[in-house]
């Protein structure tokens, strides 16, 4: 039987082939057509297969090589019907765990940096669909193995509507399988490329930027530096909201939350004045005391250079060491790309792009071909403050998402 590197031929029709080698799991499937439209869930991919019949064969694995780590539902997702379906499946299992035999693979979704992703559902519940990320540890370097461990660890921590849920982690021989959310609407990069001029209207940019900001705020509150923000890693859920993906390049740091109470004047506020026995609103400025919660890993530090070249911060390119500021730089690049259809420092090659990022050259906006819509000036100002090359002066590096929210 062919080895892993020869199992899937995406260029033409396939006869019976397998993803896993003989000695381990047998995922046999047949495909006669290529479907380029089916969206990937966690991998940046390309070609998905249709008309597949897949099956697991766990009989080839000894009990000692199969382990399943069921995840306890966290607060915000515990009412998700998929958890109920998993509980029903595990109640019938002899050891109370979810195993590969409980899953039916539907099709291959794509290939990512660490492994392949399949669409699957529970055998006794067609409506409980998931993405199964399958990682062959034998094919990975020790560095990438550490990335696998980091992603699994971070996924197990997350409990947020704009971040994926890890439903189960299954170790089968030298394979690590992560059962996570499936996002049926593809990724934001694909959607962006379908827009006129490869750009979104400002209102759409605000929507996606706000949701990404909230997701980054949550990650930073956990001490997680994302380091891989880009439209390709932003998946679109069935309801149109976003879900960040791919956490293998993250690193963790300490974070000390603080809460301060600030006095501020509310804009266009009205106060009620008692007048003649009834309350009447009176326009004016009212001073309010509002809480300001900040949980930003300001002491985070790493020297490893990871990420996508167009989104790398100057301190990443120089190798001088970096911290939380790389995510806020990437957020600025992200907003710029949604507005203008390209990234601000893109050159004719990767080397030129990195040179532009590291140089003292200021970021420039494209010349406006027509009258700019209302709000563009404020968006440009935000981008300029996020793309300050000195992280000590970059917006977000001190108070995180609060800086952006108060802009």
UniProtKB/TrEMBL annotation:
Q: Which reaction does it catalyse?
A: L-threonyl-[protein] + ATP = O-phospho-L-threonyl-[protein] + ADP + H(+); L-seryl-[protein] + ATP = O-phospho-L-seryl-[protein] + ADP + H(+)
Q: Which domain of life is it from?
A: Eukaryota
Which SUPFAM superfamilies does UniProt cross-reference here? Protein kinase-like (PK-like) (SSF56112)
Its Enzyme Commission number(s) read 2.7.11.1
Q: Which InterPro entries match?
A: Kinase-like_dom_sf, Prot_kinase_dom, Ser/Thr_kinase_AS
A Gene Ontology molecular-function term? Answer: ATP binding
Q: What's in the keyword line of the UniProt record?
A: ATP-binding, Kinase, Nucleotide-binding, Phosphoprotein, Serine/threonine-protein kinase, Transferase
Which intervals hold domain Protein kinase?
103-407
Q: Which GO terms describe its biological process?
A: cytoskeleton organization
- Which top class of enzyme applies to this chain? transferase
Matching Pfam families: Pkinase
Similarity-based family: Belongs to the protein kinase superfamily. AGC Ser/Thr protein kinase family.
Protein's name in the database: non-specific serine/threonine protein kinase
Source organism of the structure = Gossypium davidsonii
